[in-house]
Amino acid sequence: MTNSIDELEFTDLILATGTNTTENHPVIGTKVKRAVRQHGTKLIVIDPREIDLVKFADIWLRQKPGTDVAVFNGLMNVIIEEGLYAKEYVAERTEGFDALKATVAKYTPDYVEKISGVGAEDLKKAARMYAKANRASIIYAMGITQHITGTDNVKSTANLAMLCGNMGIEGGGVNPLRGQNNVQGACDMGALPNVLPAYQQVANEDARKKFEAAWKATLSGKPGLTIIEMMNAAGRGDIKAIYVMGENPLVSDPDLHHVKAELQKLDLLIVQDIFLTETAQIADVVLPSAAFAEKDGTFSNTERRVQRIRKAVNAPGEAKPDWEIIAGISSKMGYPMNYGTAKEIFEEITKVTPSYAGISYERIEKEGIQWPCPTPEHQGTKFLHKDKFSRGLGLFHAIEYIPPAELPDKEYPFILSTGRVLYHYHTGTMTRRTKGPSERYPESLVEIHPVDAAKFKINDGQMVKVKSRRGAVEAKAHITGKSPQGTIFMNFHFAETAVNLLTNPALDPIGKIPEYKVCAVKLEAA
Q: pLDDT by residue (tens digit) across 447-464?
């Protein structure tokens, strides 16, 4: 997040897009609802589904899945045409405005309505609301990123925020809501194929030299592969071994038949996890690791806050903290990692990670600190880009709308979109082993619009079969207007109804994220 969670409660307007906040991020969802109810914050929701936040929204733009770029271009078209953009901010703090203006010129409200289904008058109303707010915050999640145009979608949110001067101010910004508790921290530490800690590029020779000196090792300047690219490489025989840690690709990855076949071609599959996941069940080696309450360390949350975690109970059996397992394997393979505690590792992090340089265990004993925190005297950073962007001037990107990779046709007439529900988390590795969530949401459901259900003679609670070009699953029908006509929605928490047998592995060319949110399916009574 460029800004902080608490700022959401006291800003003037929130634009929520591609985020079912109350179910996927319920703590932040509470902040949004409280902002509307208690502080008069305006709320714009852009989402194909009638999510809970729609009840609190001043306006709801219900776009067709995968048409986000067109909608954002339409909002900017109105703002520019009506002279509502922050002219001084754009002139002083940004570049590329002329190219953006030329591109969005054709995305008139009427043109956008034809693409997205969003009414022209509603688009105008939302654009004016956002532009006229003194402070406006954009929040988004995987409904924006999990498309072949996910990177374009994110850039479009940044375009809109800069256009109205909402970057670098309290209560503004572009705020991705992270999908898991330490995703931000993992990325900060370089758990991405193209960067070292603090997003220092692997391809940058100066950055590599710094880490080579610190680690006394030679580093490759070639970026690695993303998860889906790794699976494809395994299928080709280019990768012989994969080490999976805290991930369950046999439930979470798209086109699961293909994924399983690729994993089974490996010479060696290692899985390190707290439970025997579906992926661990086909592994050659399983390494039991400690859960969050069984180890010391830090997590960095969605607002960049670095927080202490402390061991509360002993890990069962032979389970060890992840860092101990990694250090032990590394040492056995000839590169000694002689760390004694998690604190020692964090002290090394502060030496090689500029944004963490001023943070210490002592400073975050009681309350976390938001990076960047470059010195021990620095108090942390509540919001980013206050006086200037890290690159100097903020860059507008002129982006054209590109349709999803797989659209409905005569054989597969429905759009399938996937996501989460409140009571379960990711692949269900933890939540489906607990009684409460399983009682509240015991099985997978297929959301079907009443008009579509009547057409196919499907009753509520009836078993239905959903088929794509890649596979088929069966689950109970849930007849509801929550999903629009022509679209069905399923969650991916249930391995026995593995919706990712259906999803399309087409990737965003830059972010390499699969298009989980749009694929073509057919529907029939089971």
A: 999 999 999 999 999 999
